[in-house]
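Sequence decides. Our protein:
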Amino acid sequence: MYNAYFRCFRGCPGRWPLYEIIYTCPNCGGLLEVAHDMDALRDRSAAAWMRIFDDRSGTTRFPYGSGVWRYKEWVVPDLEDENIVSTFEGNTNLFWASRLGEQIGVPDLWVKQSGNSHTGSFKDLGMTVLVSVVKQMMSRGSPVRAVACASTGDTSASLAAYGAAAGIPTIVFLPQGKVSPAQLIQPIANGATVLALDTDFDGCMRVVKEVTKDNSIYLANSMNSLRIEGQKTVGIEIVQQFDWETPDWIIIPVGNLGNVSALGKGLLQMKELGLIAKLPRLVAAQAAHANPFYQSYKQGFKEKVSLKAQKTLASAIQIGDPVSYEKAVATIRAFDGIVEQASEHELADAAARADLTGLYTCPHTGVALAVLIKLVNQGIISSDERVVVISTAHGLKFTQFKVGYHEDQLPEVEAHFANPPIYLPADVSVVKRTLERKLG
């Protein structure tokens, strides 16, 4: 009854099955998007869809317990259940960051903990969809033998884990020395073929696009719009967690720009089907050392800016030539959105400040929090508004970043919130005097 297909994002004629090996429009070379038969989806009222999704939340009925496959009819409706590869992704905590919010002037502050997922990042939301579709393709005799991606760390971890769960070989291209040890070991542990190239992410992306021209290796980067279909569910889940009320703002750190495009796609689908009446404003947060989207935004998106990304503590978004630029521009315009940047000092201090209120943030979430603080100080976000910051990865993946901050060893960073250990002799009197000084 329900169906979905690929079409050109720019509006060229034609549609292609989701199980066809195709990544860009054959007419114009632009990105594809997954389109749904919206008239068919309207056979249920908004209230009926809400009841269905609420009924599936937390269920043990496969595959609906997943925070992605709960919305199966809105994602890949004709996928056979036996081909779904799921780790119960999604269903992540919406953390009420009340103490941090009070400190910075927005008491109704929430942090969507998307890093509390199987591989520790939001990438699982998209990878469950892509690998499941590939599994179905292979069951039908597709020539695909392996799935590949370029990555700054999190995408490779997610692809390797889902590929291992499905029994599908995976290949990952990583920039040498530019991912954390925790991110590097994940695909290795899950049996992926790991190729560390002497280049940056954009160089890895160029290589993987060439390698996957051979249809025996399937491309898993976010230019593949199957990933977007899974990632779009984060916005739907946020609204559902607020009992189907839309927050005023959602802030997300961005690099290759697939995540902000996906976030907007899910929210627009909800509005079109009547589940929400208003859209939140979206903020795309970039590291100042890798800020092509910010530079384009400051020029009114007159043209795409591509640059050589400088080294940043927010390594997962150290990208200078974002693939999903056109989709992200359309999203920012549709949501009256903002693009803002954060310096190395700002992102590190924001992450540490959040940690002191009970969070444990990755540097990318630090970028989003630093941008939030800027927008509050500028009076753009007001104290009576509900704000959601999307945390994209788990802080445990970035232990070196944390240690470097608290030892005040990070370049360009003044560690205002450093809390290093105090080394003392095993002498009770010395310990007591030290605690008296600390506790006042």
